[in-house]
Design a protein that fits this description.
Radius of gyration: 25 Å
Order of helices and strands: EHEEEHEHEHHEHHEHHEEHHHHHEHHEEH
Shape: elongated
Structural class: alpha/beta
Largest sheet: 6 strands, parallel
């Protein structure tokens, strides 16, 4: 069967993480993704972190299934090439500062003139409108202004970051979803009219804050950092085991807590009406956490895992990448795939998410060489 996005052609104008992450998803599920890079240097991600020869290994994951062409978007010749390519594509993905593409004559209104059906997906720090639209926006700043970093870490220490570009990736997932919705609307419209998708990094992060806003608006509560716990939800924490390893236990629903208490050999907790509901457990969370860790310290991490798995209590170790590589579930789900880098060296890369039963995505090619596909898409006389 055809892949879900076969027949969709995407022009990727983005750099770094957010917009290219969208292109990666589309490419894994069959779209033809044409990545535009600066002549000579390419996407900055080519030079980030651990390198293989002269290219980041991250690049080979982030740009898989894409085709690379080089165009100088700042020159009139390059801008004309984009307008020509736009006639043939379904989607343009970009993450420049708002107004940049308009100055170059390749913004949404410009490309709509040559292709009224085009979908332009725009990712920026603060969105295409509003007083902050012209500010430089990066994922790290969005995580801060979106409220995530304020809640990350321990209350007696400065806020910390997740050790990944999480803000960019969240925005990319929204952008992919928005693009698919826009494509569906277009394909159901008799006139095949396109539209643009406006994704702000800050708003994408802010959207994940659960009940933080209504709690503040209704009661004046400002949720604070709580380390490894979730305030008001108990027990859910990280506990030390006898072998010095840590394990996460989330027994915060009423039925699960009852099973958990019995598994620990503390049936009196299971029957106590104070702990029968979350409110009572949350009010006594320090006492409960002390009891739980007294129990986990009597067992190794694997023993705790086995006992609680049998009791159907959510539990899991805190994995390093080494642990993930050796885990049978990741292996069974084809999440550790092997590809060949230039020069013939094999390396494992993350598999494809999500899993579709009839039309799964795949890794057809690794990230391309800079300008590898110029001859396929650019005019023969081009200086790009």
């Amino acid at each position: 069967m055809k892949k879900p996005l076969e027949g969709i052609k995407v022009l990727e104008l983005g750099n770094f993480v957010a917009a290219p992450f969208v292109g990666k998803i589309f490419g894994e599920f069959g779209a033809e993704v044409i990545k535009v890079e600066d002549p000579g240097k390419g996407d900055s991600l080519r030079n980030w972190r651990v390198m293989h020869h002269d290219t980041s290994v991250w690049w080979y994951v982030h740009a898989r299934n894409k085709k690379s062409i080089t165009i100088n978007l700042r020159e009139e010749e390059g801008q004309e090439m984009i307008r020509e390519l736009a006639k043939e594509v379904d989607v343009v993905i970009e993450n420049f500062r708002p107004g940049t593409l308009e100055r170059w004559g390749i913004g949404y209104e410009d490309l709509k003139q040559v292709n009224p059906s085009i979908i332009m997906t725009r990712i920026s720090g603060y969105g295409q409108t509003g007083p902050y639209r012209d500010k430089v926006g990066f994922g790290s700043v969005a995580e801060s202004m979106g409220g995530l970093r304020y809640l990350t870490g321990f209350p007696d220490r400065p806020p910390v970051r997740v050790g990944l570009a999480i803000g960019d990736s969240i925005a990319a997932l929204y952008a992919a979803l928005g693009t698919l919705m826009a494509l569906r609307v277009r394909d159901n419209d008799p006139t095949k009219k396109g539209q643009y998708v406006d994704v702000a990094l800050t708003e994408s992060v802010f959207s994940l804050l659960e009940g933080v806003l209504p709690e503040y608006d209704l009661k004046g509560i400002i949720r604070e950092r709580t380390g490894a716990t979730l305030e008001g939800i108990a027990p859910s924490n990280t506990y030390l085991c006898a072998d010095g390893k840590y394990i996460v236990i989330a027994a915060n629903s009423d039925g699960i807590f009852k099973r958990f208490a019995n598994a620990m050999g503390r049936p009196e907790l299971a029957e106590d009406p104070v702990y029968a509901i979350n409110q009572g457990r949350a009010e006594n969370v320090d006492y409960l956490d002390e009891i739980i860790e007294e129990w986990t310290k009597q067992h190794t991490q694997k023993e705790v895992q086995q006992i609680l798995d049998e009791a159907r209590v959510p539990v899991g170790p805190i994995y390093s990448i080494e642990d993930i590589v050796n885990d049978e579930q990741y292996q069974a789900r084809d999440m550790l795939q092997t590809v060949e880098l230039p020069g013939g060296k094999s390396v494992r890369v993350p598999g494809v998410v999500p899993k579709l039963s009839e039309t799964p995505g795949d890794i057809g090619t690794i990230g391309p060489k800079l300008g590898e596909h110029n001859s396929e898409y650019l005019p023969k006389k081009s200086k790009q």
